[in-house]
Amino acid sequence: MRFVGNSGKTAKTRRGKKILIKRAPHVRENDKQSLIVHGSKTSPVLKEVMEYFFTLKKPLATHLKWHHPYHLFEDVTEIERFASKYDSSLFLFGSHQKKRPDTLVFGRLYDGHLLDMFELRVTNYVPASHFKQPAPLFGIKPCILLQGTLFESDENHKRLGNLMIDWFRGPKVPHVRLQGLELIISFTAVEGKGPKVPHVRLHGLELISSFAAVEGKFLFRVYRSELKKSATKTPRVELVECGPSIDFVLDRKQIASDSLFKEANRVPDQLRVKPRKNLSQDVLGTKHGRIHLGRQEINRIQTRKVKALRKRATTGPNSIPVAGNRGEAMEE
């Protein structure tokens, strides 16, 4: 009996059936694999950058070093075919051309098809060997920082930041030790303006000078955290740049529609946390519970009876006069 997977492929052997079951959608997906592909021509700078990204993503990466004459913004079928072959949902494509030198295309796929991709052009590169500080160990969980107001105000940079987190997040782990937060990857979006460009007004032929807004730089930095002694139990953290240092400029982009992006981020019903009544959580993760009490009958509560506070009779031979009756007894 042949097994047909979700992609339409048919398994003829037991091994093929296991592969199709492994690639089928799961409630808890596996760690995302990355595919690194070279274009028809790559410069030495691109080769070094792509080799570093491959080392950073190990073992969740596959590096294809032979050249492929692809133009992703014209046709993405070939990269989708390679991603399906190597079971990868993230890809990096490097190409060097006369009109578009030193370009890297970061992208991801959903359900075997392209979700979004961004073309970044390398304008400045400083390798890690130029830094005196030792590089952190590879294969550890990185701490990713997004800096810049563009990541909150601009929709394209929001998607770009989301893609960078998805690309460099590494394997999913339940807990991380404080000493394990050694690798810090920082992405900074710098908003820039171009030179003054003259514009001619038709009525009056008046010359106007204005600033033409252009895409700013996108900075990639790698830091290493060092834990120093402090006066408290919590150590003092210092960040030391260990490289590499890369400056990008955003060229072209292709992003998914809002409906498709929402569908790709949908959480399965099995993983949804059911809301609990009267339970909230603050920004720091502390849980706060609210308790509702009924009406309390304080008069009926059985309390401790002290002998000195016990009520006594005010009349009779053994009675003790109260403060009001003591003055009357002395007058008699």
Q: Could you characterize what this model shows?
A:
With 332 residues, the protein is of the alpha+beta class. It folds into 2 domains: 1-30, no CATH class; 31-267, Brix domain (Rossmann fold). The protein has 7 helices and 16 strands. Strands 3, 4, 5, 6, 7, 8, 9, 12, 13 and 14 form a 10-stranded mixed sheet that branches. Strands 1-2 form a two-stranded antiparallel ribbon. Strand 3 (34-38), helix 2 and strand 4 form a beta-alpha-beta unit. The protein starts with a strand and ends with a helix. This is Ribosome production factor 2 homolog.
Topology:
Blueprint: E1 3-4, E2 10-11, H1 14-23, E3 34-38, H2 44-57, E4 61-67, H3 77-85, E5 90-95, E6 103-110, E7 113-126, E8 143-147, H4 150-153, H5 155-168, E9 183-189, E10 192-200, E11 207-214, E12 217-228, E13 236-241, E14 245-254, H6 258-264, E15 279-281, E16 287-289, H7 323-331
Tell me briefly what this model is.
The chain has 332 residues and is an alpha+beta fold. 20% of the residues lie in helices and 32% in strands.
Task: Jot down its keywords.
332 residues, ten-stranded mixed β-sheet, alpha+beta, two-stranded antiparallel ribbon, 2 domains, elongated
